[in-house]
Amino acid sequence: MSKPRYRWQRRVRHPWVFALMLASLVIFCVMLWLPTQYLLVDGSNDKQHHIGFFFGLTLLCWFSLRYHPAWQLCMLLLFAVLSELSQHWVPHRHSSWDDLQANLTGIALGYVLLILIKLGKKFLSKGS
Q1: Residue 58: is it exposed, middle or buried by C-beta count within 10 angstroms (0-12/13-18/19+)?
Q2: Cβ-Cβ contacts under 8 Å for 17 (sequence gap 6 or more)
Q3: pTM to 2 decimals?
Q4: I want to staple 47 with a disulfide (CB 3.0 to 4.6 A). Which of 9, 59, 83, 102 is the partner?
Q5: Residues 55-87: pLDDT tens digits?
Q6: In 6-96, which residue ranges form alpha helices assigned H by DSSP?
Q7: What's the Cα-to-Cα distance from 21 to each of 14, 25, 56, 89, 103, rounded to whole Å?
């Protein structure tokens, strides 16, 4: 394998997945700081949106970055907490412990799926 030409290539596993992750983060941050009446999503199933976003973000982070899984988990947890705390300073928005719990649930479900995938691969390779 050849040596990476650029510094970012040492940290990014799949550039297109990384671009998708960055785009989803930008869209999330824009939606995070908009007043609720301008959001395109219904607020009745808010927790499912939090779980789904952080579940997807966990998978995108795993498949796009070359960081150790513990560092990835720290980055995801930090983003989950900061995204809720930053709403405290946005007019017409508020922080919620329930939203933070939904964020953490999405991250946990993402890691459970990744562990199951790894165990399945290990089991299938032993069976062959």
Answers
A1: buried
A2: 60, 63, 64
A3: 0.83
A4: 102
A5: 999 999 999 988 888 999 999 999 999 998 988
A6: 15-32, 46-64, 69-85
A7: 11, 6, 9, 25, 16
